[in-house]
Amino acid sequence: MSSAVFSTSAAQCRPFVFDGENGAEVCPQPSEVELFTEARPPQRVVSATFPAAFKDAKLAGVTPASRLAVRPAPEMVSSGIAAMDTLTGGLPRGCLTEICGPASSGRSTLMLAALSAATRRGEYCAVVDASDSLDPQSIAAVGIELDRLLWVRCGENSPQAERRLEQLLRTTDLLLESGGFGLIALDLGDLPPQTARRIPLATWFRFRRAVEPTLTVLLAVERQSIAGSCSSLLIKLGSLKLSTPENQASPTPAHAQLLTEVEITAELVRSRMDRKPVRSAEITFSSKTAWAG
Length: 293
Prior knowledge:
Rossmann fold, single chain, 8-stranded mixed beta sheet, globular, 22% strand
């Protein structure tokens, strides 16, 4: 009498193992054809009977990391400030750049300088102004060609910050979709940080993906960084010293003093241009008022 030895694997429709020569399989092994035609859960037998050609076909679409093409570095253009170009190498096309800092830290100065440089290159630019705070006289003073500038005033008829933010996001989507702009600046500097942070990270990711195949410089001006890892360049600004006329009397109240110049410090917080971690670096440059020469 033949004896049979079996285990719990039989419950999963796997073959019994018989000691006798004439022992029959309670659940016979499927052939290779059956493995491809029957709808059943994967079995341990399958890995042993799959043809090598099938395995090669599944791996045919997998590219080894050593063969992945290296994405070319983006084209860099001037920011309009020589010291800033020395620090960052310029502003990258097809990327999102964040400029953040508190009030009077030089955010508008850097944005206007970048717009002026872009229009001088013959490019069309757009400013999406969330708070209707852009000064036309300042635009003319820095040499921006007004015929090449589109100014979208989101805060003109929308006193509520949430409504202005919604208009800014919709407008940015339309501008990125239309194309043809050398620089698009999103001015969020006068929005409260808690309002600006309501922009979902998925929105910044969508902006980044939309600008990647273009030659547009996407610039976000903010009080605090809010785009996270979606920005390729992050610059943090701060003011060091405010200068007043030398002949101005010292007892003059602070709110009545005439500002002639401000020294600005810029810190490079993040840069994905060199494909390696960037050590924090700082520069200092000055911004003079129009009446100070």
